[in-house]
Description:
By secondary structure, the protein is an alpha/beta fold.
Amino acid sequence: VAERAVLPAIAAAGGRVVVVASRRADRARRLAAAYPGARAALAYDDVLTDPRVDAVYIPLPNRLHEPWTIAAAARGKHVLCEKPLADGPAAAGRMVTACAAAGVVLAEAVMFRYHPRMARLAALLAGGAVGALVELEAAFAFPLDPEPNIRWSAALGGGALLDVGSYGVHAARWLMAAEPERVAAVLQPAAEAAPSSGEAVDLGGAAVLGFGGRRTATVAFSFRGAEHQRLTLVGTEGVLTVPRPFTAWTGERLPFALWVGGRARAIPTPAADPYRLMVEAFTRAVRTGEPVPTSGRNGVGTVAVIDRCRRAAGWGAGGAPVSGA
């Protein structure tokens, strides 16, 4: 995601890539070579000690988000951290505290929130297009290759719930404009996919979130199912469906479908690069203090719901299923 989307977005948004760190020298050199004046580094700390660096983008495995965000804050660097913010609410909370104490911006890179389609979606709901919202259905799945892949590693904070499930959880919290009062969940373990750690990660599952006002959200996620995405909003007067809600990108003009009284109407939406818009919003936050919709504090809320889902499914705080689950 850094190579394909975020680094190009930084350059397109008027920023300057000055240093790229990777554990592999060839990868660091290849990525840095695409940006004039950028240098390659083998140690992540080299990024933080570079005086030219104002802000860092952290696309590391989930378990590494906390230590490197806190290290960046200690060096006075603003942080754009890949989603989910951390692999647990306590770690995410420490990240927020560290950045607030250092006076730096912390934003979670939930890129779909910056696509203008999402502003259109919010406006339709606020305008009563479906009446009162009573149900949300979200799903995100794709078949993940076997190891080696960090998403299969419990030690690195892997699993489908944290990876693709976080999109649906974020969307539910945002569109319901509330935190769930009740949570139920089922996680399917994939212990065979992480033999080196001795712990299990989930390969998929589903969660049901109960909100005030007798409203419900269902969130499905999988590393085994065929690639698909879904976001459906059911109201008292109509239904709104959103194709490719989470990864619509440059050149894709994907209309919504609004069903009212058994009749469907297509609602056009614009094409955009949500990564560039995210970087631009992050830059404004750094320069002017303008708030971002995916703040660190909001990221803590998403991770907290994910943690409740794990516990509701009978999985321990560390992510592994407990006996009898």
